[in-house]
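User: Let's play a game. I give you a shape written as tokens, and you guess the letters that built it. Ready? Here's round one.
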């Protein structure tokens, strides 16, 4: 049981505003948001009793200017470590062991169509390489593959490239990330070699999405869609294309600030706010059956 920590909103707001100014990928908007937070603080809008309520109010204000869903003040019921990024890693570690390393379902459906579910996140590659390789290698012999991202809320860009490497034949430019720090751009490519066996770049591939699919999971769907490699089936995704970092600003509060933005080499843009548009729109609950039917029809041809 955690011991409640006294909430003083001013230091939390001051530190959050500082982090925005120094790190947010859009400096002009960072200035607007920092001013907004300080104005709301002066008005008494953040004079609340609990950290959870403060997190809700501040997040709403942070997302009010440009709708960036990676921007926020996140509440953690358990005390979070002070190190940068540690809060998110702690949360991921709790999910890793209960999800078979992020591949909780591998199944063979009728007609030789495999399903690989990737959830709840795409874990850091140094954790996830072994379970993902096992799942994707097992599915590599299928005649068609369905990758289920309906319950995936994001994760690591390096893991996106790792998964894509099993679904392509040649080394391929997947994405470019612009980072505010150093104003540098970094390209993401599929790997020339992978552990195990590839499904490859020619057999039918479908990706399932829902309105909960977010962040790195959206990148996986978007990259494969833009390359013409996969058919996306399901619902419009949430629309978050800005990788973020997290800073502890109170023992139960983490400021999450996007520090980069994605630039797809095919579209020249990304899925921020607009989400990934499905090629075959349908309810998420119906998308597996729909993709299975599409795969069987294509295989019959």
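Assistant: Ready! My guess for every position:
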């Amino acid at each position: 049981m955690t011991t409640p920590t006294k909430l003083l909103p001013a230091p939390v707001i001051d530190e959050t505003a500082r982090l925005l100014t120094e790190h947010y990928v859009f400096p002009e908007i960072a200035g607007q948001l920092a001013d907004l937070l300080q104005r709301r603080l002066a008005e008494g809008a953040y004079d609340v009793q609990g950290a959870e309520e403060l997190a809700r109010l501040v997040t709403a204000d942070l997302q009010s200017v440009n709708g960036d869903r990676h921007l926020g003040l996140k509440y953690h019921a358990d005390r979070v470590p002070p190190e940068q990024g540690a809060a998110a890693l702690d949360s991921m570690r709790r999910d890793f062991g209960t999800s078979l390393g992020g591949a909780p379902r591998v199944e063979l459906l009728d007609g030789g169509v495999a399903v690989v579910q990737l959830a709840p996140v795409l874990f850091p590659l140094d954790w996830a390489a072994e379970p993902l390789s096992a799942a994707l290698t097992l599915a590599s012999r299928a005649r068609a593959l369905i990758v289920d991202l309906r319950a995936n809320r994001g994760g690591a860009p390096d893991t996106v490239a790792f998964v894509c490497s099993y679904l392509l034949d040649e080394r391929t430019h997947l994405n470019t990330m612009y980072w505010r720090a150093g104003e540098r751009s970094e390209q993401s490519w599929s790997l020339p070699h992978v552990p195990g066996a590839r499904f490859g770049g020619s057999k039918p591939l479908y990706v399932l999405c829902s309105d909960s699919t977010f962040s790195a999971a959206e990148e996986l769907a978007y990259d494969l869609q833009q390359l013409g490699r996969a058919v996306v089936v399901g619902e419009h995704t949430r629309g978050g294309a800005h990788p973020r970092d997290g800073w502890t600003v109170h023992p139960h509060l983490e400021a999450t600030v996007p520090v980069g933005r994605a630039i797809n080499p095919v579209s020249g843009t990304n899925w921020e706010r607009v989400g990934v548009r499905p090629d075959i729109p349908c309810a998420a609950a119906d998308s597996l059956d729909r993709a299975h039917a599409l795969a069987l029809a294509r295989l019959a041809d």
